[in-house]
């Protein structure tokens, strides 16, 4: 089984792609054409996979940039075909199948019809089937689901196993490998792994994966205010700026700090201070409020606070133009 390293969590950073390839990845995958284009221009020569089906208007650029495209729509494949023919190229397509997570993918009973239609398109090479798990509805990948996908492929291409491939999920499917539940397959297969490489954890349990590092990414923000304040609001409350009604803990009058980072930088992600005794109370567009009563070091205006990020926070920080990036290769 191969691994395609997914760089979208790092905004397609070439240094991350190079590290993944050095670590043994067979290729690089990303959901954004702009990222793939940047990777190719940076000198990445490995196969590039487009994870998200391109829009009809992106078909031409997708053919220019991507070697393999995940797709589940015949109109999109027809647009890719026209672009491929005009450029005298052959584009590999993996047809994504809906396996329960209720995001992208053709329903299993419609796969055969789509494959037949796609294989008639000039400039298109249908390389196999793919699936996605644990992204939208959180459906847990299982060995039974992997075997079900292989059974579909066998029914479509009973004598062409070596020339086809199965794209059998993302970082969430790694748990099957680590637990020894990965089934023996007759088709070449790969996983599209980003979060588990970048953050070093099992995406389902958030437990550390053996042989990985948890400190590849760190976020630093500066303290802009330190004060003793009441912990509860001073009046009637409603929803805040993000339509959330906060349930705040009564800490009495306590020490808190504000750091200069917020939702505009991190999206829906969460961050955790590395310093023992610091706690995130809440976040607005541009401010993050910390409880610092139990801090083991002095926190003052100008202090740098270091944070760990979850995947949402990493994506937000890496794509935010307001967050500076310092890369060590």
Describe what is shown at a glance.
This protein has helices at 14-22, 33-41, 59-65, 74-86, 111-118, 143-156, 174-178, 195-199, 263-266, 311-319, and strands at residues 2-6, 27-30, 48-50, 68-71, 91-97, 124-131, 165-167, 189-193, 219-230, 253-259, 271-273, 279-283, 288-291, 304-309. It has an 8-stranded parallel β-barrel, surrounded by 6 helices.
Q: How would you describe this protein?
A:
The chain has helices spanning 14-22, 33-41, 59-65, 74-86, 111-118, 143-156, 174-178, 195-199, 263-266, 311-319, and strands at residues 2-6, 27-30, 48-50, 68-71, 91-97, 124-131, 165-167, 189-193, 219-230, 253-259, 271-273, 279-283, 288-291, 304-309. The protein is elongated and about 70 Å long. It has 2 domains: 2-199, Alanine racemase (TIM Barrel), CATH 3.20.20.10; 219-319, Beta Barrel (Lyase, Ornithine Decarboxylase, Chain A, domain 1), CATH 2.40.37.10. Helix content is 25%, strand content 23%. It has 10 helices and 14 strands. It has an 8-stranded parallel β-barrel with strand order 1-2-3-4-5-6-7-8, surrounded by 6 helices. The protein has a 6-stranded antiparallel sheet with strand order 11-14-9-10-13-12. The longest helix has 14 residues, at 143-156. Helix 3 (59-65) packs across helix 4. The chain has 329 residues and is an alpha/beta fold.
**How far is the N terminus from the C terminus?**
27 Å
**How many β-strand stretches?**
14
Give the strand order, joined by hyphens, for the main sheet.
Answer: 1-2-3-4-5-6-7-8
CATH superfamily of the largest domain: Alanine racemase
Task: Tell me the number of structural domains.
Answer: 2
Structural class, by secondary structure, is alpha/beta
- The value of Rg in angstroms is 23 Å
CATH topology annotation of the largest domain: TIM Barrel
Second-tier CATH architecture of the largest domain: Alpha-Beta Barrel
Strand content: 15-25%
Poorly predicted parts: none
Query: What is the helix fraction of residues, given as a range?
Result: 25-40%
CATH class of the largest domain: Alpha Beta
Q: Helix segment count?
A: 10
The largest sheet, given as strand count, sense and whether it forms a barrel, is:
8 strands, parallel, barrel
Pattern of helices and strands = EHEHEHEHEHEHEHEHEEHEEEEH
Bulk shape: elongated
Mean pLDDT level: 95
